[in-house]
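Per reviewer request, we include the raw input and output of the structure prediction for the construct analysed in the revised manuscript.
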Amino acid sequence: MKNIMWLVTNMLRNMLLRNKRTLVLVIGLPIAGVLMSVLIYGNAGGTSVNIGVVNHDSTDITKDTVQFLKGLHKTNVKMLTDKEVDHEITSKKVDAVITFEKGFSDSVKANKPDHITITSIKGAEVTSFIKSYLYQYIDNISALNQAAEGDDAAFKQMYENYQKAPFHVSTHALEDKGTDQNIVKQTIGYLIMFMLFSAVNLSALITKEKEQRTYFRLLASPVSARQYVISNVITNMILLTLQVMITLVCITTLFHVDMNIPVWQLFFILVLFGLVAIGLSLVIIAFTESSKAANGLQTLIITPTCLLSGCFFPPEFMPDVMQKIADFLPQTWVLSTLKSVQQGADLSSLWLNISILLAFALVFFLLSIYKLNRNNTVQKFI
């Protein structure tokens, strides 16, 4: 045990203090992954609509309609003249221009709203939003005139009461949980890939030290090959756990993202996947004879499997055949567990997912041990 602790301490010192590449993998990449996810999803639904208004119908109904537009949430209204319209639209200072022509209020009273045009170069994305609120407001005024049955005095009274009604429609911005969940899913997807690459790179130190003859000098000491491998696994697990902790701290503290899942549960799921990542890294090392071969094999395995399992985009976008293949990948079960917990499932009820991840880790470790034990050349060990 003393030898293992000495090896772990020495490995951590060399990796964190002397190896800048390891620092980038363990610390830099998780932060970059969170930042990328926030940039991708952070502004979803957060933009305002800028509306220009040209008023040629200076009546109370038209003025009140403009005030209604100004009161809409995330809507900025700017009064324009005819000469300013083209410049404001082409320079993208406004998303759309609403023109109230003379006779607008009369058409509303006649229950045939007209003399209004909406101009935009952004198409239905903007105009549909404006129409959904504006036309409903105009229809309400038309309904008042219809109820007055042509009596101008009665319409005027009802219209004044409508504008001065004790109740008002107010808008409130609701917190978009979906956006935060997307950020978490995307971040975890990136983290899964980073953990796999980090695990292989850390396990590849075994091969590199053999190539540099450092490994054989260690075996000349009281340190055994088995202790050396166990020390590498423990060191790898410590660094992957540190990677998970940095990611969770960035999500919750630095970017204030609501994960909709207890931190300890997500930590447990990711640490469990860390065992899978280390097991897979040992398999890659066991089946390769050089550090260059290990680097090439990790790229062939990690990138495609992360792509299929949905680390970069939802797996629903892929053909059914690809989705079925993804069911045999550990990354899929991590993301599936995360999704279930975010939707309210208790972690204890997901014993099948946890068991499958443990099974992946066990199979990878047993396969690597079997292969390493059968390697008899001086290029292999155990």
